[in-house]
């Protein structure tokens, strides 16, 4: 949601002396052909760009929030994050841990590849942060709206991205159903929650939030689950949507107040409350006054056509905010 969605392979670290880069990406690319995830597509495209001969994997199985496993050369092949390796007892050395942390702190997502119980290597995937992300977050904060980032990425990548866009409250390594839990937790504290998302994993939380806002360039299921769809792939549309809803609601209240006062004064006059004082409203005038009440409200509402969205210039966060709140298994109170 905060990034462009144009994933690309930036780093490759091959750990096994038994495989070449072509062999490594042939196995990894073939395994990822069983997934429709954007990261998987980026790996497949890179493997094809270096002329790897890919084939459909056997016994392919995707684990949400972890990765994919399949059978290659009669052995289990894993492609995913650290959680997937831990599940299958694949050992990661301290040296690789240091390499992993370094890549993640550069806002890169790292995918491990293991064949059997041997760790073959890792791939770093990078995406560009949307240029309007920082400006949008700052404008939301200026409007006294708390901004949380809830992501399935690891804590290092999440913290790096959050620092660049000015978000100080994050929840990382979240599975799809856990995103729903975070929405429910905030709602349980009496907050009104607006969820902005664009992926399949965001769909349950979009449906659970008080307002689900989908990015127009997102997946069909996310768009179907949302209450509001931003036609343009621009995060500033979130501020525009909230501002327009505020202006519209204020117009409704103004119309209601105007109509209430007008009718409280006009109806008694038309009924002849002042007839004893010689003030009588002719039926034609009363009918015209009633029509004017309706017309005035409609004309007032039509003034919304003159609405202009708030101007939010794109800014760059040159001073990264290091006060990011790292969140573990529970959300901050």
Automatic annotation (TrEMBL):
A Pfam family hit: Hydrolase
InterPro entries, A to Z: ATPase_P-typ_cyto_dom_N (IPR023299), HAD-like_sf (IPR036412), HAD_sf (IPR023214), P_typ_ATPase (IPR001757)
GO MF annotation: an example: ATP hydrolysis activity
GO terms for cellular component: membrane
GO BP, sorted A to Z: monoatomic ion transport
Location of the protein in the cell: Membrane
Gene3D superfamilies: Calcium-transporting ATPase, cytoplasmic domain N, HAD superfamily/HAD-like
Primary location class: membrane
Transmembrane domains' residue ranges: 256-280, 286-304
Protein name: Uncharacterized protein
Species annotation: Vannella robusta
Taxonomic classification: Eukaryota, Amoebozoa, Discosea, Flabellinia, Vannellidae
